[in-house]
Amino acid sequence: MTYPNPADLPDSQRIVITGIGLTSPNGNSLSEMRDGLLNGKSGISDYEIRYFGKTIAGVCDFEIKKYQSRKDARRGTRAGSVGVWCANEAIVHSGIDWDNFDKSRVGVYVGVTEHGNVETETEIYEISQYDYDCQFWSHHHNPRTVANNPAGEIALHLSITGPHYTIGAACAAGNAGLIQAVQMLRLGECDLALAGGCSESIHTFGIFAGFNSQNALATHLDPTKASRPFDKDRNGIVVSEGGCLYTIERLEDAKKRNANIVAEIVGYGMNTDATDFVLPNAERQSQCMQMALNRAHLSPEQIDIVSTHATGTGQGDILEATAVHTVFGGCEKTLINNTKSFIGHTMGAAGALELAGNLPSFDDGVVHPTINVDTFDSDCPAINLVQNEAREVGKVEYILNSSFGMLGINSCVIVKRP
Asked: Which pTM does this prediction carry?
């Protein structure tokens, strides 16, 4: 398919990021997170959850009561609180006149890997203390577990009356939220989007037990060294929580209010492996990257940073390295990195958070490293991976951000220096 060149589009069809709000295991703002990425600060720590017991995880520590009352936070969900924090922080960062903005023209598009397991597990645990008497089941359970909950809590909190929904796209969901925002803005369905992803995954014992049963849950005596994508001694995924939402607008609207433009979204791609429930397909992943490049009218050589999805699993990392090598193997200046080595796998938030961690490269010209790579796995095709120490490159023009998920869903987003 032939796509229009983004550079030739009118400002009403060019889409830009103007605000970022996030919470991650190594920081509750972009500056905090970036500082951790440049200085090798891991956000992984010891963790314990009922039934499963002791493990490790990436835990966020943000000030819930900055934006929510104690009552609202208790009535809602952890994912909702993550989303409310990120949405408010993004609005503040954008400098938009929120009080006077038409809330019916705001869309909320939040990617999630899964939602509702935490609340259902909690209720089952609670009634187990009362011989499983369902009269003790919370009347808040249903609104907590409906699929649109995180986006709905944000809309309710901010009095947004435009469209809101969550996007169930497994671990490709953070990118999927951004892609949905781009499409809805171009269609004229909204004038401002709050988009990205969020996760409360560490609060469900089922996800730990599930990955453990697949022999895919990372272990290490030092939690900060457990998440080690592409390293020969990697042994699985570190489960984390987190969130990242962006304010996204048409370029013409951002110009009208003299907004500080963080980046322009110039390309994206989504496709499906259709080959396995959990094992990735390198050919489809490389096709997804090429789709995003085609939409952006870019050659692989023009991409400065490829932010990888790699989670630290044995086969998954090899297959993704194969996909990256297929597209970027001959590109000497294209550098590869991975953010999960710092913060673990934030599931539905991963794509949005990992993109955020790389966006400051437009300003500082530095590519953050992948930590915990003691020995690059020789079973992975050679990729230009920035290992253990940040690299100064002087100027960054384009970043490609990949996120892939179970049941073979793939997503890529390309952003450009504003």
From this structure: 0.97
